[in-house]
Amino acid sequence: MDQPFWKTTPLEAMTASEWESLCDGCGKCCLAKLEDEDTGEIYFTSVGCQLFDASRCRCTDYANRLAKVHDCVRLTPQNVRTIAWLPRSCAYRVVAEGRDLAWWHPLVSGRAETVHEAGISMRGRVTASESDLAEPEDYFDHMLEHEP
Predict the structure, then answer these.
(1) Which residues, in sequence order, are CB contacts of 16 under 8 Å at separation 6+?
(2) Is 47 within 8 Å of 18 (Cβ atoms)?
(3) What does the DSSP 8-state code read for residue 40?
(4) How far apart are CA 27 and CA 37, in angstroms?
(5) 43's torsion region: left (phi>0), alpha (psi -120 to 50) or beta?
(6) What is the pLDDT of residues 1-59, one digit of tens each?
(7) How do beta strands 58-59 and 52-53 pair?
(8) Cα 6 vs. chain centroid, distance in angstroms?
(9) Greatest extent of the chain over all pairs of C-alpha atoms, in Å
(10) What span, in angstroms and rounded, lies between the C-alpha atoms of 109 and 102?
(11) What does the DSSP 8-state code read for residue 143?
């Protein structure tokens, strides 16, 4: 039986289509994060990026996101190995670390909805949009106790 591409193809050798299909649609990378200046520790918030559609867990302007959102990060095979805030459940991180995709990942289940059904996504858990918050201090009201 043939192995799926994410088990046999290094991240750097994946086609654009394979790379994009690794995204499970959880929306966690589209959350605002806070960094403790003293410790470097990262804290997630339940605040979505200004382009994040929380009901669909998708960017509303994916093609132009990097031009429209100054701190949007394009994930690459090189940086997924070094970005500290990528959630442990993120497929890019999972594959980079040599782990296998979870049962709920759409590439495994064959259905985009399983990430939501399993409670992995941010659907129904985003409490504000960056565009709604006026002051940096406002983010503290939306800090999460642990990684979502």
Answers:
(1) none
(2) no
(3) -
(4) 25
(5) beta
(6) 689 999 999 999 999 999 999 999 999 999 999 999 999 899 999 999 999 999 999 99
(7) antiparallel
(8) 18
(9) 55
(10) 9
(11) B
DSSP state, 98? T
* pLDDT tens by residue, 6-21: 999 999 999 999 999 9
The DSSP code for 34 is: E
DSSP bridge pairs for 41: none
| Residue of 33, 39, 148 lying closest to 87 (CA atoms) | 148
Residue type, 129: S
Q: How many Cα atoms within 13 Å fall on the side-chain side of residue 86?
A: 22
- Residue 54, token pair as written in the block: 């929380």
Nearest to 52 by CA among 104, 107, 128, 106: 128
Tell me the chain's radius of gyration from C-alpha atoms: 16
Return the amino acid letter for 83. I
- For residues 50 and 120, the answer to whether their CB atoms sit within 8 Å is no
- DSSP letter for 38, please: T
Per the structure block, which two tokens stand in for 34? 């806070």
